Amino acid sequence: MVMAHKQRGMVLIVSMVLIVAVMSVAVTLMSSSTIDIKVTNAAQEREAAEALLMGEVQRIISQEKARVNESVFQSRNGEFTNDEGELVRRTIHIDEELELESMQANLNSGQLLLECPRVFNFTEGLSCVITEVESSIQYGDQSRHQVTVVIGVAQEVIGNLGNQ
User: Fold this and answer.
1) Per-residue pLDDT of the chain (164 residues; tens, 9 = 90+)
2) 10 Å Cβ neighbour count for 153?
3) Taking the domains of the chain in order of start, what are their residue ranges?
């Protein structure tokens, strides 16, 4: 009978050790699944921000295309200079609600317009104003992250006149 009494205490100690071991495994699994959920949410937020940004960029280009001769893509080099005569980027669209800002930079560095990129139906006498549109959007918790899309635009114009 003495042995049975001693074994009861030993079973209690072994069962407590097993409970602690099982609980530590459960806590580890729960914390790793929480990290997985956070990573998945971050990836989904980025994907949504990229899709929204690409849609907004396409909308901006479509709106400017509809403006025909008043489009910002028809701008010449002289319209991209600051007071010191330096070529600069300019803001062409701001959306406060989406925290979206679109900038335009002229890629024509010389006095003359550039020849248009090659196409099969090339027309003599057409030149291009080549610009890039850089759009950025903030996303994530407290807008901590930023996605930027840069798109080049080649706008055909008649004649190879000086950019000034």
Assistant:
1) 456 555 667 778 888 889 999 998 888 888 777 788 888 888 899 999 899 889 888 988 888 888 877 887 777 665 666 777 676 778 888 888 877 888 888 777 666 666 677 767 766 777 777 888 888 888 887 878 888 888 888 877 776 554 44
2) 18
3) 2-158
Q: Whole-prediction pTM value?
A: 0.62
Residue with tokens 């609980």: 23
* Number of Cβ within a 10 Å radius of residue 53: 20
- Which residues is 76 bridged to in the sheet? none
Query: How far apart, in whole angstroms, are the C-alpha atoms of residue 49 and residue 106?
Result: 26
Judge contact between 133 and 103, C-beta under 8 A: yes
**What is the distance between the alpha carbons of residues 155 and 72, in angstroms, rounded to a whole number?**
10
- A 10 A CB-CB count for 97 gives 5
